[in-house]
Amino acid sequence: MRKIIHIDMDAFYASVEQRDFPQYRGRPVIVGGSPEGRGVVATASYEARRYGVHSAMSAGKARQLCPHAIFVYPRFDVYKAISLEIREIFRRYTDLIEPLSLDEAYLDVTTDKLQIGSAMEIAEQIRAFIFSELHLTASAGVSVNKFVAKIASGMQKPNGITFIGPSKIETFMEKLPVEKFFGVGEVTARKMKSMHLHTGADLKRLSEVELIRIFGKMGSFYYRIVRGIDERPVQPFRERKSLGVEDTFPEDLTQLAQMDAELYTISQKLIERLQRSNAKGRTLTLKIKYNDFSQITRSQSFAIPLVDVSTIYTIALQLLEKTEPESKPIRLLGISISNFEDVSSDPLQADKSGQLWLFS
C-alpha cells in the first residue's frame, strides 16, 4: 500500500507577491490580466477570492467582482526559482516526485530517505520547512493513492493538512460531489447532474459498462476511483512535448457560432495553463472529434511563440473554418500548443504520446 502526499502551495503566485512586497499584504491581489480588463487571471490572493475571483477568469470579470483589487504582472522567473527550492525540500525525503505545475506535486514516501515511516509526519515537516525557509504556506493531503491525496489537500486550505486512511476512502468517495472527480469539468458535471448523478454514490450505482457507454474511456476510471482504486504511480519528471485543453460537449455542436464560443473558452483555459507552466510554443494543433467518433487534427506553426488568448483563439478558429465545420456535428474540440521555445517548469502527467490535456 502506497503512502502518497499531495503538496499544494496556497495561492502561490499571489502569496509570493505579498511576501516580497509588504504593501500587498492583507489586500486583494490578482496575478495576471490588467486593470483595464485585458487578459486572464493566473491566480488570486485569498483576499480576492472572497469576492469570487479565481484562476482562468477574465480580468474584466475579476475587476467587476473586486474593483479595488491590485493587478500584478506575473514574475514567472521568480516563481520558477522558488518552485525549485520547494522541490529541493521534497528531495530531502524522496526522489519520487511528480510535479503538476510550479505550485503542486505528488510525493511517494512509501520508502522515505530519512526512514521516518509516517507520511503525515513527513508532510508536516515539509510544510514547516517551506514556511521557515521560504516564508510561504502549503496545504497537504495524505492518503494511499494520488486521487484521494489531491482531494484531501484542498479540504483545509489554506495552510492545512488532511489524512484520509484506507478504511475511510470508499465512504469518502461516495459523498464526494461529482465535480470534484478527476476528469470532470463543468460540461461533464452538468451532463452528470442532468442524469441525476450528483455524488460518488450515484456513480457507484452504475456498472462499468454503463459508465463507459456514457463517458467513454473515463467511465472505467470513474468506476475504479469511486471504489477507492487508483493505481497510477507517482511519475518523476518527463519532458513535455505539448500542452492542451479539450472539451467534450453534452450536446453536439452544429452551428459555427457555437463552435466559435467554445473555442474562445478553450483558448482562455489553455493560456492560463501555459502561463502557470511558463511554457511558450510555436505550433498550434486543433483537435476535432465528430459525433460518429471520427477524429481529425489540423496544425499550424509560427516563427514566434503564441502567448495570448486572442492569437490562439483566432488561429484555432481559422483552422476550424477550413474543415467545413457545419458539415458534421462536433462532439469534442481541443487546442494544444507544442514546439516549445522555453519550458520553465515540469509538466502534469503526460500520456504515452507525451501530450498533456486538461479535460473539462
Automatic annotation (TrEMBL):
Binding site for Mg(2+): 8, 103
Catalytic activity as recorded in UniProt: DNA(n) + a 2'-deoxyribonucleoside 5'-triphosphate = DNA(n+1) + diphosphate
EC number(s) stated in the UniProt entry for this protein: 2.7.7.7
Keyword terms: Cytoplasm, DNA damage, DNA repair, DNA replication, DNA-binding, DNA-directed DNA polymerase, Magnesium, Metal-binding, Mutator protein, Nucleotidyltransferase, Transferase
Active-site feature positions: 104
UniProt-annotated location(s): Cytoplasm
Site for Substrate discrimination, residues: 13
Name of this chain's protein: DNA polymerase IV
Cofactor binding: number and manner: Binds 2 magnesium ions per subunit.
PANTHER family linked to this entry: DNA POLYMERASE KAPPA, DNA REPAIR POLYMERASE UMUC / TRANSFERASE FAMILY MEMBER
Gene of this entry: dinB
A Pfam cross-reference name: IMS_C
A GO molecular-function annotation: damaged DNA binding
Record's subunit section: Monomer.
GO cellular component: cytosol
UniProt cross-references to PROSITE patterns, sorted A to Z: UMUC (PS50173)
Family from the record: Belongs to the DNA polymerase type-Y family.
